[in-house]
Write a structure and sequence with these properties.
408 residues, alpha/beta, 8 strands, 11% strand, globular, DNA-binding
Length: 408
DNA sequence: CGAGATTCATGTGAAGTATACCTTTAGGCTTAA
DNA sequence: AAGCCTAAAGGTATACTTCACATGAATCTCGTA
């Protein structure tokens, strides 16, 4: 494991401990919330064009006309969400127009037609049960509340809706005349999303389109630098380090959110180690911690069966690897996984799901990005899906350990 | 030898089932006049 | 008689199962050179 490993151990054990902040009086932070990724600064750098565009489209609402619906595209971390929120905040200050922001990707919260609608109603101050009611009743309530008002409805990560036939929602909303006052703003990073849409929905939804381009290194630097100014102790970080961070982020598709997270975590680590200068090494540690957290979070929040499935994939992969020198990144087939999975279930007194269902679970793992799958035909030997784990080795170890404790 | 048929193992769509939860309704019990 | 509680009836969303058909290239088959 070595020094690095020991250091990493230390870093990982770090929780946002309530005492640690008070204990060491000097901290690299001045204002920590500035560095959180959902913080909305007073001014947004390098998104002027997009913001004006958005504002101009929404402008008619102040004169009582209905603006067009809007569709926003752009890679992750290009400022789509934050710019939209920013504009809507400003609009809220200038008028009393109601805006609702929904992230459609939250599992068990807003990822189906019913749940999304329920969530929106909740936002509007109407409580509805989480199951049992006909969807039509929810629509009725919704239209009652909305009647005659202008409401801006932002659907972030709108592509997630489509997977679970939430398509209906868009169709119903955009079609209903009663919903006249509803302005839809759809946000997605999936360029192909529009192809899946019903053509009528599509044309009404994308009356206007805004495209967010990735930030370049220079712009990222400005953004990071501003956050540094506002949130960190001036002496705690050298400009070169910020520049390096920006450059690295620019290479990875100009993702500003990730860059800011990285900065914050590096700062936390520095604090944690009771140091007062953030160095490159801390960034490396932060990078690793971020990856570990991402995967750990994803795995932990998964239902039991999905975990059992992942466990099976990991174990099978290991098995194959010990046989041959692992020179090909080991692929596993659905059938093998399912057999192993059944064993795991039996051992843990879990009732195993059918292969049909497991197949869907694999698809889900694929879409979360824990696993990558591709359908291959092996001619005479049938057709199957090759599953490749996307978890890096050092993180895999932890994941495996975690799963071992459950299913071992 | 090569074109077309066969075959395998699983992908994938559609329809059905189990479960958990919701509202409405009607009967029965209590209460207060 | 009015008010309240409870249980049954009738209904829904979601996660999962069952059924049935679709896929696609390695292999097999068989006619032909």
């Amino acid at each position: 494991m070595g020094v690095w490993g020991v250091l990493m151990e230390k870093v990982l054990k770090f929780r946002e401990n309530i005492f640690s902040n008070y204990k060491n009086a000097s901290s690299v932070f001045i204002d920590k919330k500035v560095l959180s990724s959902n913080y909305i600064p007073n001014r947004l750098l390098h998104r002027d064009q997009e913001i004006t565009q958005l504002r101009d489209i929404l402008l008619p609402i102040l004169k009582g006309y209905k603006p067009s619906n809007i569709f926003i595209y752009g890679n992750v971390g290009t400022g789509k969400t934050i710019s939209t929120k920013f504009v809507l905040n400003q609009l809220g200050e200038a008028s009393n127009i109601k805006t609702i922001y929904m992230n459609c990707k939250l599992k068990k919260v807003s990822d189906t037609e019913y749940r999304l609608l329920a969530q929106i109603l909740k936002e509007l101050g109407v409580w509805v049960p989480e199951t049992g009611l006909p969807t039509s009743v929810l629509y009725k309530k919704f239209f009652e509340v909305v009647e005659g008002q202008n409401i801006i409805l932002v659907l972030d990560e709108i592509d997630a809706l489509f997977n679970h036939s939430g398509n209906e929602f868009l169709y119903n909303i955009s079609r209903t005349e009663t919903a006249n006052g509803i302005i839809l703003i759809g946000i997605t990073n999936d360029i192909t999303f529009k192809n899946h849409l019903d053509s009528r929905v599509c044309s009404s939804l994308s009356e206007e389109e805004i495209i967010f381009k990735p930030y370049d290194a220079r712009q990222l630097y400005d953004i990071l630098n501003e956050r540094v100014q506002l949130g960190l102790n001036p002496s705690s970080i050298a400009p070169e380090i910020v520049a390096k961070c920006a450059a690295a982020a620019a290479q990875e598709h100009g993702d500003a959110r990730k860059a800011i997270d990285l900065l914050r975590i590096a700062a936390e680590i520095t604090d944690r180690l009771c140091l007062d200068k953030i160095t490159e090494q801390h960034f490396e540690l932060a990078h690793e911690k971020m990856n570990i957290d991402r995967v750990a979070e994803a795995v932990k929040s998964q239902p039991k069966h999905t975990q059992a499935l992942l466990y099976s994939i990991i174990k099978l992969r290991a098995k194959i690897n010990t046989g041959s020198q692992n020179w090909v990144d080991s692929r596993v087939l659905t059938g093998e996984v399912y057999e192993y999975y059944k064993g795991v279930c039996a051992k843990n007194t879990l009732k195993s799901l059918t292969q049909r269902r497991v197949s869907d679970l694999i698809t889900e793992l694929n879409s979360i990005g824990i696993v990558s799958t591709s359908v291959v035909s092996n001619g005479r030997y049938g057709r199957s899906r090759e599953i490749v784990l996307l978890i890096e080795n050092n993180i895999l170890e932890r994941t495996e350990k975690f799963l071992n404790e459950i299913f071992g």
